[in-house]
Design goal:
This protein is α/β, with parallel strands linked by helices and about 300 residues long. The protein is about 50% helix and about 10% strand. It has two domains: about 80 residues, 434 Repressor (Amino-terminal Domain); about 190 residues, Endonuclease, Chain A.
Length: about 300
């Protein structure tokens, strides 16, 4: 699989408001720049400041239909057939994503990632401790989540598990995302939840890699410096021309979102190197079967 691998275009309704706002904002920015109109001039047209135009174009605030309509008029988009798609998309940007029903267990810094993840056409990742969340079984996820929620009621644990299971649907929906991930060998050997839970998790991995759009590779203990090149990281790629690639780095109480070209290119380089030095998919599947027999 090459760095340029791409999945099918996802339905924007799967993406949630964060990504849809970014898409609308990017289109408005292109229209403004093509018309050689300044942010100050655009702001005057909607009775706002140039800073609000900046926030709109970055997808950091919601859209009022009147504002979008006035901006389209300013930008010379006056034909109803041309205006309708963007106005409809702007309306969609104000509707919550399916995961907003779990808002009580989703921190603000993670909410944005959920929308981006749902909109991605390609997800590449590297994990050194646990099975990637999109590939976890329900029991494996529960075994990870429960210790992290010390003192929380069981109902909260179950809501977190349900959210994680809901995220997995992007791999089985009609137009699924492409997932390519490398995991450290320790991930496959760490007895999360005990032998039975781990065995079932490994079996799940052998089944899900049979999907043509899911690739799993293991970085063996025998590998050299490549495994230490980076910590856990995720790169999201979106349908061509919509949004730039994004690197997501999760921390204990927050996350970093890297979108500068130089940063993203560096992570692509590391991911490609990991993909070359890790066991290839067929060898990884063989290892999974051996580990299942050993447990």
């Amino acid at each position: 699989m090459s760095e340029q691998a791409d999945g099918q275009n996802p339905d924007h309704r799967q993406a949630g408001p964060t990504v849809v706002r970014m898409l609308v904002g990017a289109q408005l920015r292109r229209l403004r720049e093509n018309g050689h109109i300044t942010r100050e001039e655009a702001g005057e047209a909607i009775r706002a400041s140039h800073s609000k135009i900046s926030r709109l174009e970055l997808g950091r605030t919601g859209f009022k239909q009147r504002d979008v309509a006035d901006l389209l008029t300013l930008y010379g988009v006056v034909d109803d057939d041309e205006r309708a798609p963007l106005l409809a998309l702007a309306a969609e940007a104000n509707r919550p994503g399916w995961w907003h029903a779990y808002g009580d267990v989703v921190p603000p810094w993670f909410d944005a990632f959920l929308g981006l993840e749902q909109a991605a056409s390609l997800i590449r990742g590297y994990e050194v401790q646990f099975v990637p969340e999109l590939l976890q079984t329900e029991e494996y996820a529960r075994a990870l989540i429960r210790p992290a929620c010390v003192g929380a009621p069981e109902s909260e644990v179950e809501r977190r598990v349900a959210l994680r299971m809901g995220r997995r649907r992007l791999l089985t929906r009609p137009e699924p995302a492409t997932l390519w991930t490398v995991v450290d060998e320790a991930v496959l050997r760490r007895p999360i939840g005990g032998p039975r839970v781990l065995r079932d998790q490994l079996r799940h991995l052998t089944e899900i890699v049979e999907l043509g759009h899911v690739t799993l590779q293991v970085m063996p203990f025998s590998s050299g410096a490549a495994a230490a090149a980076t910590g856990p990281a995720t790169i999201l790629r979106f349908p061509e021309g919509e949004l730039p690639d994004l690197v997501y780095l999760e921390q204990l109480t927050g996350a970093l979102y890297l979108d500068k070209v130089a940063d993203v290119e560096r992570y692509w380089h590391v991911m490609n190197r990991l993909g070359i030095e890790a066991e290839q998919p067929a060898a990884t599947t063989a290892l999974l079967h051996r580990l299942i027999k050993e447990i």
